[in-house]
Structures are given as structure tokens and as C-alpha cells.
Amino acid sequence: MKKLVILIFTILIVNAETLNFEIPIEESNNSVQNKTIILDSNNTAYHNEQNNTYKPVTSETDFNDSYISLNTHVELAVVINKNRFFKFIPSLMNSLNAYLAQKGIDYNISLYDIDTNLSDIKAKDIIYFTTDTSKLNEFKDYNKTFYFPLINKNETNITAENLYFGSIDFKSQLDALTSFIDDKTDVITDNTMLSQKLLNYEKNLTYLNNIYRFPNINYQDLNNSFIIFNTSAGKTAQVLSTITQKEITTKLTLTPQIGYDPLMIILTQPADIEKLLIANSIINPPMTINEYANLLSSDIKYNWLNYASCIFANKIYNKQNEEDEFYMSDFNIYIFNNQINYKTQLYRIIDGAFKQVE
Question: Residue 267 has what DSSP assignment?
């Protein structure tokens, strides 16, 4: 009954939205206010008795401590640029709530804007969303532990006991995909942070022919090419369908984690995806946790950012409860050398489902 109450309360408070992590480099929304939202294991926010509505509190001092359980077993903070990632926060928070709710424990999650002074955050474990590796040295001197879901350790030379990294290893995925390439290769990308990261790995490909920015593509040039997609599933499906329509002959079409999305199945025909290979590192996600997330309109099965964040929540749970800090048993995955140790597997779409390539 307690878990059901948690889930219902969360749905009432947070309007969940699917996180696709497709963020234009300059995108922002200035209408979002920089406020701190604090949720506990009952997902309680500051309650306005007069109009019976909920609103985020502006600081921790505004939060009524009577709402926080005295038996909290897990306490963590999330720091994120609310203007830049405002569309994705509900899905992210719901996935964390889903993970901690199914543990059957008391917990407290605090949400802070990126400009918050870290010294003002009481939590000792902070899931911090940034792609800026140049400022990581600043975190080493705090008596707190930081977890970075958007950065892979191979992107930085920083080594510190209190810094952990959780991004998918896109370089490893591209290495697995490009091992099939032995001829002319075209890359289709767009103006998002993730596509730019992928492009940095692809610029030195031996057989690189052209880089096209969606939707400006010379389809005839794709004839007899290997094609790598840095675009979201929706855009990739659109290009694949156009290739079929224009009777373009390709050798293989390749996409990393960004293409491991049910939309690839929904928006394509069998002929479109006949030569498609997809790299994926979300291996056997725990079904119980994903079912809780689905109830909250969130997802960890296809959403790698939610998946990584929940692995860090597992790490924080283990740390605060004196359990194994290297093996995340809820996800059957290790954190090795301060980085989530992802494996890469290749998939095809066959009969309307993702099938692993043996």
C-alpha cells in the first residue's frame, strides 16, 4: 500500500514527459524559474492550504521539516540546468522516484538549479548534470561525492575519489559499428549536444566521405555508402524511409545508442531497416524497476540517461547503507575505476523487435 501511495502522489505532483536527450546546443527556456524542489519518500512538496495546489519551494529553509521522515535511509541531490533541461526533468525525477520507491525505503531527493552554491546543498551525494569537463577540477575539493551521468571518464583526464562518471561509452559503440566499414562512409548529424559529441569521434574515420546536417542531405551521394546516423530515432527513421523511397542502395546503416528507441520500429517499414545495425548498452534492465517507471510515465529500458541516473541511485543507496559500492546488484553492473562499466551489444530490428546480433 505504501508503494502505491508513493506512485499516486508522484503522478499528481510531477507531470512526466519522455526524455529523448535531444537538446539543441543553444536551446533554453527563460520562462522556467530557478527554484528548488524537495521531494521525500512520500513525494511531498510545499502545500498551499488556501488554493489546494502544490508549488516548489524556493529554498531548503522554506521547506517544512515535518514532511521529512526521521528514518530516511537515502538522501541525495540532483543539480541540473532547469532552463536547458526543463523538458526532461519530470522523466528524470520519476525514474529516480521509481527506483527508490521499489526499494521500500524512506528517501529524500532535492532538486537544485545549476547555479546553486554547492556549499548550500546539505546532501553529501549529488547527481550533477553537466557536459562541461573543463570545470571538473572544481568538484575535487568538496566533502561531497558527485555523479556525472552526461560524462564518460574517457572524455577527461580527471581522477578523484569523489567523482563518478556514467555516460554511455559512445566511442566504444562507434568502434563496434565502424568495424564493419571498409568503404565510402557518410555521416548524418544535426545540431544537438549528443550529435556533436559523436561527430568528434567520427571526423577521423578512414573512409569518411561527407557529413550531412539533417535535413540537408544529398541522397544520391548515399548510393553504395555506409551511413552513420547521429540523429534521433524520429529523424533517422525519416531518412531511412526516404532512402527506400528514392531507391538508394546502401551497404549498411549504423546508429549508436541514440537509435535504440521503439520509434525506430513504429516509424519504419521492413525495407527501411533491412541493413540497420544498432549499438546498445542498456543490457537486461530490471523489469520491476522499469514497470514502476512506466507507471510514472518514465522509462529506463530505452532511455539511457534515466538508466545511468538510476544506477547512480543504486550506488548512493549502497554507499549510505554500507553495501557493495562497486557491484550494483539491482542492475547487474559494475562501477569500475569510477565509471559505470557498460558493455556494447549490436542489434537488428527483426519482426518488429530488437534482436541481438550473435
Answer: T
Q: Which helix (H) or strand (E) holds 235?
A: helix 233-245
Give 173-183 pLDDT, tens digit per residue: 999 999 999 99
Interacting residues of 304 by C-beta distance below 8 A, sequence separation 6+ = 21, 168, 257, 260, 281, 282
- Residue 243 and residue 232: Cα distance in Å, rounded? 17
Q: How far is CA 119 from CA 115, 272, 288, 290, 355, in A?
A: 12, 52, 36, 34, 47
CATH architecture, domain defined by 2-168+286-340? 3-Layer(aba) Sandwich (3.40)
pLDDT in tens, 241-292: 999 999 999 999 999 999 999 999 999 999 999 999 999 999 999 999 999 9
With beta carbons less than 8 A apart as the criterion, state whether 347 and 356 touch: yes
> Is 160 within 8 Å of 139 (Cβ atoms)?
yes
CA distance 315 to 356: 28
Quickly name the fold that domain 171-280 has: Rossmann fold (3.40.50)
171-280 matches 2-168+286-340 in CATH topology: yes
Closest by CA to 95, choosing from 83, 78, 112, 82, is 78
CA atoms within 13 A on the CB side of 278: 27
Compute CA 120 distance to the chain's CA centroid, rounded to the nearest angstrom.
Answer: 26
Place of cell 521492413: 270
Cβ–Cβ < 8 Å for 230, 188: yes
Query: Domain spans of the chain?
Result: 2-168+286-340, 171-280
Counting other chains too, the contacts that 281-286 makes at CB distance below 8 Å and 24 or more residues apart are 281/168, 281/169, 281/173, 281/257, 281/342, 281/343, 281/344, 281/345, 282/257, 282/307, 283/333, 283/342, 283/343, 283/345, 284/332, 285/331, 286/330, 286/331, 286/332
| DSSP states of 94-156 | HHHHHHHHHTT--EEEEEEETTS-GGG---SEEEE----GGGGGGGTTSSSEEEETT--GGG-
